[in-house]
Amino acid sequence: MTEAATPRMPDEVGVPDPFPYMHPIMKKNYGNWDWHDRPRPGVLHHVAKSGDEIWTVRAGTQRQMDVFTIRKLCDIGDEYADGHIRFTTRSNIEYMVDDEAKVAPLIEKLQAEGFPVGGTGASVSMVSHTQGWLHCDIPGTDASGVVKGLMDLLHDEFVQEKMPNRVRITTSCCQINCGGQGDIAVNVQYTKPPKINHDLVANVCERPAVVARCPVAAIRPAMVNGKPSLEVDEKKCVCCGACYPPCPPMQINGDDSTKIAIWVGGKHSNARSKPTFHKLAVANLPNNAPHWPEVKDVVGKIINAYKKDAKHWERMGEWIERIGWNRFFDMTGLAFTKHHLDTWTGARKTMNMSAHIHF
Amino acid sequence: MKDGDATKTVDGKDVHPTPHLDQLEDGPWPSFVTGLKRLRDEGTDSNRRIMNDLLGQLNHSYEKRLGFWKGGTVSVFGYGGGIIPRFSEVASQFPESKEFHTLRVMPPAGYHYDTEILRKFCDIWEEHGSGLIAFHGQSGDIMFQGTDTEGTQKAFDALNEIGFDLGGAGPALRTAMSCVGHARCEQSCYDEVRAHRTIINSLLDEMHRPSLPYKFKFKFSGCANDCVNAIHRADFAVIGTWRDEIKINQDEVKKHIDKVGRKYMIDTVVNMCPTRAISLNDDDTLEIDNPSCVRCMHCINVMTKALSPGDDRGISIMIGGKRSLKIGDLMGIMVVPFMKLETDEDFEKLEEFAENVVEFFADNALEHERVGETIDRIGLPAFLEALEIEPDPNMVNHPRTSCYVRTDDFDDEADKWFERKARDAGLQISAE
Question: Which Pfam families match (chain B) (predicted)?
Answer without folding.
Answer: NIR_SIR, NIR_SIR_ferr
